[in-house]
From TrEMBL:
InterPro entries: AraC-bd, AraC_XylS_family_regulators, Homeodomain-like_sf, HTH-like, HTH_AraC, RmlC-like_jellyroll. Residues 176-273 form the HTH araC/xylS-type domain. Keywords: DNA-binding, Transcription, Transcription regulation. GO terms for molecular function: DNA-binding transcription factor activity; sequence-specific DNA binding. It comes from the Bacteria. This is AraC family transcriptional regulator.
Amino acid sequence: MPGRDRMRLWRDPSLPAGLDLLRASCFDHSYPLHSHDEFVVAVFSRGAQRHRVARHRGVASAGMLLVIPPGEVHAGEAAEPDRGWDYCAFYPPPGFLADLADDRLGGAGGLDFGAQLLRHDAAMSRVLLRAHAVLERSRDPLEKHCALAGALGALVARYGERTRGGAPPSSRAPIGDAIAFLEAHHHRPVRVGEVAAAAGLSEFHLMRVFRAATGLSVHHYLTQIRLRRAKDLLARGVGAAETAVAAGFFDQSHLINRFRAAFGVTPGRFAADSLSYSTPSGARMQAGPPASST
């Protein structure tokens, strides 16, 4: 049945680092393999989602929460298409959670949520869902910031732990050099030979070790960089056509197709919802079923 998915993705500039937020009711949409520079904190309220995070596979249902670290490749779809699933998600930057960890955990080191990514915790789920509702409805930046810090701070206090682990494989040379090249040249067509030269590897060796380190092909990773750049521009009010060119897509149609496949909403809808929070009269959407992504 077409048109059953109802998803809302937006960026709120009044929140730390322009936090991205999502509310969705999914039936037919499936998320392809992808990763984020931010943490993903997903809270489930109805139905069931089948997901894969790195080597972990699981099914999330109401009362469960899923915390995915930055850089972890993951995918998701409805466990039962006829039922679908409802959930909300926060995408907090690592620096924001690090500050919360300093306050809630003390000590030194990085922040980790352990090997158990999916947890059944109805009480914590309710805390996070209430905070998400405040972030969507409130027009008061202070109220929103307090709700966000309170809910994510409680999550860090309950499940966060200190770690002294080394840098992730994707940040180490030569993969780090390859990623830096992609970041610097995402706005134009890129050939694998250029990336391999920047990394000091042969083309075939680069493609093999890049996927091993990041979980994605070089092309898929570049597409993610372009999508992140597109979100940044759209949230600032840059038009879709100009955004497509600046982010490295062939044209506006190419941007729309890639954006919708990755996020479940169109670039225009993301821009409109994000910009609604840039004005004093923002947060105009009422609580209730997610709005259509068309």
